[in-house]
UniProtKB/TrEMBL annotation:
Reactions the enzyme catalyzes: Hydrolysis of terminal non-reducing beta-D-galactose residues in beta-D-galactosides
EC number, as in UniProt: 3.2.1.23
Recorded GO MF terms: beta-galactosidase activity
Signal sequence residues: none
InterPro entries: Bact_Beta-galactosidase, Beta-gal/glucu_dom_sf, GH, Glyco_hydro_2_cat, Ig-like_fold, LacZ_4
Keywords assigned: Glycosidase, Hydrolase
Segments forming domain Beta-galactosidase: 126-221
Cellular-component GO terms for this entry: beta-galactosidase complex
Organism: human gut metagenome
Domain Glycoside hydrolase family 2 catalytic: from-to ranges: 11-114
Protein's recorded name: beta-galactosidase
Length: 295
């Protein structure tokens, strides 16, 4: 059920709680829509969550016939038409050897129970919201780290998070954080400056390692400055196939059906109807092969 139908149920007069079965599918590069579901879950008390399909990739430990290295295989690795569902069972939050898949971090983020709100970085002020229903966050140690273009500049320890009760919010002011942000903006004014908050376990809770990050957030203090590409000059007259814009390194050909961008040996053709790449050619040879329609 999509977001709209989920919200419609939450707004209805139905008193039963809303719990979804397989509302998120952890296959491949997935969980891109996880945030939208959890925005609704946090908005409506009736919406109590859902089940992710599924927990672990069901791959088979084997060796690559190409590299000889250990890999986790599936049906497609054993012939073109094996009696299998190909990679369909590789749809877990974690890999077969229990390593976290990339989308596990997306799930972890929206499942966390501590949040930074109303950040005023210039004054080193922010609010900490303890979203837990039954415990404080005294077992977590908060740090704030300032980066410029990915290089760590300073890490500030913030001990004032102790004593925040369940479902409570506390305003915190840190002069050390205020100074660290000001220093970054002064010395790295033209760089991307980010502020990363991390709540790490102190090791007193069972099954949780000391230093394990239980909640995290990132804030952009200064945006990355992108280099502006040169704008192609418009040709004096259109070609037979349409308008042509060109520079010494790039040529743009546009018709009613497509836009074709060429640079050196490669060209990319994008269909206007779909906005998708229709053709990718290198040295005039097509690199994409499309399946012919069945008749």
């Amino acid at each position: 059920i999509d977001y709209e139908e989920s919200e419609k149920y939450c707004k209805s007069d139905v008193v039963k709680p809303y719990i979804q079965c397989e509302y998120a599918h952890a296959m491949g590069n997935s969980e891109g829509g996880f945030k939208e579901y959890w925005d609704l879950i946090r908005k409506y008390p009736k919406y109590q969550g859902g089940y992710i399909w599924d927990f672990v990739d069901q791959g088979i430990r084997d060796k690559s016939p190409v590299t000889g290295k250990e890999i986790f295989t599936y049906g497609g690795d054993y012939g073109r038409y094996p009696a299998s569902d190909y990679n369909f069972n590789c749809n877990g939050i974690i890999a077969p050897d229990r390593r976290l898949n990339p989308h596990a971090y997306e799930i972890q983020y929206y499942h966390q129970n501590v949040w930074i709100k109303d950040l005023d970085a210039v004054n080193g002020a922010f609010k900490v919201y303890n979203e837990n229903f039954f415990k404080n966050i005294d077992d977590l140690n908060l740090t704030a780290t300032v980066y410029a273009n990915g290089v760590k500049l300073a890490t500030v320890e913030i001990p004032e998070t102790k004593g925040i009760a369940p479902q409570a919010t506390k305003l915190i002011k840190s002069d050390e954080l205020k100074y660290a942000v000001a220093e970054a903006e002064s010395k790295h004014a033209k760089e991307e400056i980010v502020l990363n908050f991390a709540f790490a376990s102190d090791g007193t809770q069972p099954l949780v390692d000391k230093g394990q990050v239980m909640a995290r957030q990132q804030f952009i203090i200064s945006d990355y400055q992108f280099t502006k590409p040169a704008v192609p000059a418009v040709a004096a007259a259109p070609t037979k196939k349409g308008k042509v814009q060109e520079t010494s390194s790039m040529e743009v050909e546009e018709t009613n059906s497509y836009v074709k961008v060429s640079a050196q040996r490669m060209s990319v053709t994008i269909g206007k109807k779909t906005g998708m790449i229709d053709y990718l050619d290198v040295d005039g040879e097509p690199m994409l092969k499309f399946r012919e329609s069945m008749t």
